[in-house]
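Class, study these two lines:
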Amino acid sequence: MSGHSKWATIKHKKGAADKARGKLFAKLARQIEVSAKSGGDVDSNPTLRTAVQKAKAARMTNDAIDRAIKRGTGADDGGTYESIMYEGYAPGGVALMIDVLTDNRNRTGAEIRNIFSKLGGSMAEPGSVSWQFARRGVILTGPYADEEALMLAALEAGADDMTSEGEGFRILTDPSVVYDVKGELDALGVEVISADSPMVSDNLVPVTESGDARAVLRILEALEDNDDVQDVFSNFDISDELIEAALG
């Protein structure tokens, strides 16, 4: 299973903990706040609309969303953040892109560099990794008995493709319609594990040893645990069996 899909599934399982859920909401609120600086109307600000849709998909409350928008538009006190995309490699040559929102570039850069140094990865020059990735809408679902009905609903809502992934399905869309497709799946009663617009790579790096798999997951988890890191994108290809062994 490829990097984004497998890591999203792992995060979904881990996200049952209140601590992990609180950290996710804090990151989503920061994304909304930054997006709202260009305008607080979701109808005229597509970046804000996407951030709000992502927050609602994670079941963030409307009150929390509204507070984040007010901070971003200056109606409430908030910090000043900048967006940075760091690039690097995990052990085994797995490419990583780290999406950051920070109010202190020097602090965050040092923290990211320290994670790479401690866990066997390496930072990369801007552009040396990003060429391998493109933004796509990706929806992961649980099992659904009527695969044909699921595919028809997804395609009619604007999806580009659907494939089996584990016990469920992986649906690809244009980033602009990923939450429209999710809405149709919700209406159909499909369990949506995740819906997002990540950076996805077709240049997958096979990881076949349990030690390497464990090292990749350790650096991913450490990066995700940083408060300034919004998301981590990777191109590893690890079997389900090896993932289970590495996590166990």
Remarks:
- Residues 3-73 form a domain with the Arc Repressor Mutant, subunit A fold (CATH 1.10.10.200).
- The two ends are 18 Å apart (CA to CA).
